[in-house]
Amino acid sequence: MQTRKSIRALAIGGMLVALGTLSAHIIYFPVGVARAFPVQHAINVIAAVLLGPVPTVLVATAIAVLRNLLGVGTLLAFPGGMIGALVAGLAYRAHRRPYVAALGEVLGTGLLGAMVSFPVARLLMGSEAGALFFIVPFTVSSISGALLALGMLKVLPVFQSTVGSERE
User: Is the predicted pLDDT of residue 166 greater than 50, yes or no?
Assistant: First the structure.
């Protein structure tokens, strides 16, 4: 039974990585000088609900690596995506409510991820952005993705059948 759960989690994680990687250069909207990628945030919330915190961080990391290797992402995908994924996963684990995972994604990416992105942008990317520069675009992006995820979790039957199943 544990092997079946592991295979299921691996398959879901792989599909989410593919979706996040393929959608990165297609589905985005401008937020000031930054670009918002709501699908990444939606994937973080969905993975948090379906897989748990550790696999969610692994999915976000894999997407960030692939986006950077393909030239459709920046180094900011790492702190924003991974921190948001971790907070969303931990929030869902603690409360077992999808909206709490969505709130965790917004706080994790919009606030914590944005704060960690400042030194990454300054030291590794040579950006002159201010310390609070990333909070607004990261928050707008994560709110739009979290709302997208909540809608998907509510509407799509495949998510309804897996929500509430055993997670880590």
Answer: no
